[in-house]
Design a protein that fits this description.
single chain; about 475 residues; alpha+beta; seven-stranded antiparallel beta sheet; 18 strands; about 35% helix
């Protein structure tokens, strides 16, 4: 067993930048929710992408499909749609120095991306803050730093509270419809076979147990397991999981998928929280796609829905930087706050505009990052690779990528610790702010908040990649005023 990679002490972050990133979170939560409901917007702007991107095409087809017709007459216990919408997001930022006099204006808090699926490391990030608080309190941190300089980080508890509230909404709807007494309902986290980030997920499960007085265990299952063991009940539209009771047959059916923490072997899925499903590698066969489609059609509260996942594509984020787009969904003050964090982004869609934008990037490759419609880190291209890729791609493939003005993050010194060995280096810090959003079926928003933070740092000369990709390490915030 080995510790997670981390820094020796908390990294310096501008208090003004930190406050800006946290304060804009509720507006971003509303924006994501509104965009996910705007199917014409998603279809219009992802049209060019899906011509050269089979993964995004399948997601968009699933989102826009009318689905199977409802039974007629509807069975008394049939729930045609989830009783609530729950979102767990993470908005990532770099901080950069103010532009020098005479330079073009640029934000100092720069949004890197919206993470609308599998926003991870909330629990481990909160634990690293506690480790650093102990380091500072015992005099092992940088001179002059006190525990008061470290903001509280309640991501673990707030994310668990969001899952608990989603589960409670499902149960409350059961109660209002007189459906108590049937199969029990439990939340499920969808994980990758051979999951590496298991400890962050297990900590979230333990936090959920604390939040529900031990009544609601979080089940861990892979898409393959859900395909093998889950079916949509035609009488209720619930996703019903029937776990095999023979461990040998369970392993034979689904390999190294998740595991479960309850003696209950048959249950409905109340909330399905995806910590997998964001990459084509998570769908190696049609069985995984069938499981995703079944969950999408069922009454389980999906975190995220397919529509919300599509909002997290780089193309949608690029479109939002255009004048007037954010303003269609938010009040002026909120739209201005969100827009203040945007870096310039350019379309590479086939046609004259995409050709011109590609030429702009090839003329100054160090000023732009080339980004595909993928999550998980390690996918972006920089420097000479930008020009090489743009020359190689045909217009259709190129349309699946976007250009983003490169951020020049503030550098700070720290000690990076991997496998028990520390190295003193300059690092750049990426601040993630978690957001939780819960809207009831009738439209009432009962949760909309910033829900803790995550700081990841990497050696200043490293380019793309996160903690799971082996490039970044876990860190925590030390506010500098």
């Amino acid at each position: 067993m080995m510790h997670a990679p981390l820094t020796a002490w908390p990294s310096a972050v501008s208090a003004e930048a930190y406050d800006t990133a946290v304060a804009v979170t509720p507006a971003l939560n509303r924006l994501v929710h509104a965009l996910a409901a705007d199917t014409p917007f998603l279809s219009k702007h992802l049209k060019q992408v899906v011509e050269g991107d089979d993964f995004t095409r399948r997601l968009l087809e699933l989102h826009t499909s009318p689905g199977a017709p409802l039974p007629s007459p509807l069975p008394p216990a049939f729930r045609a749609a989830p009783p609530a919408a729950l979102g767990i997001y993470r908005y990532d930022y770099f901080m950069q120095d103010p532009p020098s006099p005479g330079s073009p204006p640029a934000p100092t808090v720069c949004q890197v991306e919206l993470n609308t699926i599998a926003a991870s490391f909330g629990c481990l990030g909160a634990r690293v803050r506690d480790v650093h608080a102990l380091t500072v309190a015992t005099g092992l941190g940088p001179p002059g730093v006190t525990v008061d300089d470290l903001p509280a980080n309640d991501a673990e508890d707030r994310l668990a509270a969001g899952l608990a509230a989603g589960h409670a909404a499902y149960i409350a709807d059961d109660r209002s419809r007189g459906l108590e007494g049937g199969l029990p309902a439990l939340p499920v986290v969808v994980v990758q076979p051979g999951e590496r980030n298991v400890y962050d997920q297990m900590l979230l499960g333990l936090a959920l147990l604390r939040a529900t007085d031990g009544q609601v265990p979080l089940q861990r299952l892979s898409l393959a397991q859900l395909a093998a063991w889950g079916t949509v009940d035609p009488a209720t539209n619930a996703m019903v999981v029937r776990l095999p009771t023979d461990e040998t047959s369970a392993a034979a059916v689904a390999g190294e998928g998740g595991q479960w923490a309850t003696p209950i072997t048959v249950y409905r899925v109340s909330v399905v929280y995806f910590r997998a499903g964001y990459t084509p590698n998570d769908y190696p066969t049609d069985a995984e796609w069938a499981a995703r489609a079944s969950l999408h059609a069922s009454d389980a509260i999906a975190v995220p829905t397919v529509g919300v996942q599509l909002v997290g594509t780089k193309k949608v984020q690029q479109v939002l930087t255009a004048a007037g787009e954010v303003e269609r969904y938010l009040e002026p003050a909120d739209a201005a706050a969100v827009r203040s964090t945007f870096m310039p982004q350019l379309s590479l869609a086939p046609g004259a505009e995409g050709d011109a934008n590609a030429a702009t990037a090839m003329a100054d490759v160090d000023a732009w990052v080339l980004k595909p419609q993928r999550e998980g880190g390690g996918n972006n291209l920089y420097g000479a690779d930008v020009a090489a890729a743009l020359r190689r791609m045909d217009p259709v493939e190129r349309g699946g990528w976007v250009l983003m003005r490169r951020i020049l993050p503030v550098r700070v010194p720290n000690v990076v610790v991997r496998a028990g060995v520390g190295r003193t280096v300059d690092v750049v810090c990426e601040l993630g702010v978690f957001g939780v959003y819960l809207a009831q079926a009738g439209g009432e928003v009962t949760i909309n908040e910033a829900s803790g933070t995550l700081l990841r740092s990497k050696q200043a000369d490293a380019e793309d990649g996160g903690v799971a990709a082996g490039v970044a390490v876990l860190d925590s915030v030390r506010l500098v005023r």
